[in-house]
Amino acid sequence: MNTQQAYDKWAAQYDSNINRTRDLEAIALRNVLNPVSSADILEIGCGTGKNSEWLQTKAASLTGVDLSEQMLAKAKARLNDINFIQADITLPWSFTQKQFDLVSFSLVLEHINDLDFIFKQAAQKLKPGGQIYIGELHPFKQYSGSKARFEDEEGITVLTCYTHHISDFINHANTYGFSITKLQEWFDDDDKTGIPRILTLLLTKTV
């Protein structure tokens, strides 16, 4: 089962099942992006719209992109005034001709092998001084065997995931002219004696 098929299958319960990664990333995104206002935002991996409703309050315009048709169906049912697009971001980003103030990635890049291509495409879609937000399952969690997964009546589905180290994000950011504005690690119940669950980065385009 490929990633698109898995998320199509997961869509029916994605908003209702227990998912600490989903919930903590939503908290992290709202914290990191709280200063944003009146921005043209491109949300990559909008899914069911779990973050779209909040991002809309920060946006002059919001475009949501996802690979999964069924996830997008949930998003469109929740929010009918946002431009939602089904697209594969591992292909050239011809799905929009706009440039944006912010490109956000929420729990997306663990499913992408080639980060270089993604950074290149995102850089091309950003205005000068634009920003990238990345919220991902922390690589320390991945090192311990954690992967995106869900359970239904047919059993457990484990999605295809790739481990990206913190240095990978930083090196690709540097390659495409981004400075590291903020890097944070987020812990379950804010217990910093354990392994962090979420990694967030806020990158600013400098060239």
Account of the 3D structure:
With 207 residues, this protein is of the alpha/beta class. The protein is 29% helix and 30% strand. The protein has helices at 3-10, 20-32, 52-56, 69-78, 115-124, 139-143, 166-175; strands spanning 39-44, 59-66, 83-86, 100-106, 126-137, 149-152, 155-158, 178-186, 198-205. The strands form 2 sheets. The protein has a 7-stranded mixed beta sheet with strand order 3-2-1-4-5-9-8, sandwiched between helices.
In short:
The protein has 207 residues and is α/β, with parallel strands linked by helices. It has helices at residues 3-10, 20-32, 52-56, 69-78, 115-124, 139-143, 166-175; strands at residues 39-44, 59-66, 83-86, 100-106, 126-137, 149-152, 155-158, 178-186, 198-205. The protein has a single domain (3-202), classed as Rossmann fold (3-Layer(aba) Sandwich).
What would the keywords be for this entry?
single chain, alpha/beta, Rossmann fold, seven-stranded mixed β-sheet, two-stranded antiparallel sheet, 7 helices, globular
Write the layout of secondary structure elements.
Layout: H1 3-10, H2 20-32, E1 39-44, H3 52-56, E2 59-66, H4 69-78, E3 83-86, E4 100-106, H5 115-124, E5 126-137, H6 139-143, E6 149-152, E7 155-158, H7 166-175, E8 178-186, E9 198-205
Parallel strand pairs: 1-2, 1-4, 2-3, 4-5
Antiparallel strand pairs: 5-9, 6-7, 8-9
